[in-house]
């Protein structure tokens, strides 16, 4: 199994927050979000692993290839990446002596797609998922693979020119159809980034769903 590595902010260990970066980025680039969130969640351990594969073109890492964007290819890609991330999560939970109810997944763009898939297919539900500017990939295929139904928060800017804003409503609708408790937050005039409002919404959602 591929071993993931990346920066950590781990002053406290009451909860684990796994941050999954976007396509072509890295854990080092995404850990700035963890630093901001950590101010409101000081007892949580934040980890931002690098994706396991180098991007085909340009610098940075990818969780799965986007060369073939057919539904089958994307589904197979996110499924493979989820198995790698699940191994990483299981190892980290054991290391910190934590349970899935003390785990939150945060993802941006491709990382958001992976966070949703990973959480739905884990054997035990995590406390929450915060998905920024992503999609729920291949919901018809994933439906039969769902093992857990954690609380999910989907946040998306209506000026996103990378992942269509329509992905928010599609994700909320598909998740609800599969019995998942989900809330969607559109952010006006926001492009393909995470802003202060998005961070605030994400932190509030994570805090609300951690029981300790």
TrEMBL record:
Annotated Phospholipase/carboxylesterase/thioesterase domain residues: 14-207
InterPro entries hit by this protein: AB_hydrolase_fold, LYPA1-2/EST-like, PLipase/COase/thioEstase
Coiled-coil spans in chain: none
GO MF: hydrolase activity
UniProt KW keywords: Hydrolase
Record-stated family: Belongs to the AB hydrolase superfamily. AB hydrolase 2 family.
Protein name: Dienelactone hydrolase family protein
Origin species: Candidatus Wolbachia massiliensis
Source species taxonomy: Bacteria, Pseudomonadati, Pseudomonadota, Alphaproteobacteria, Rickettsiales
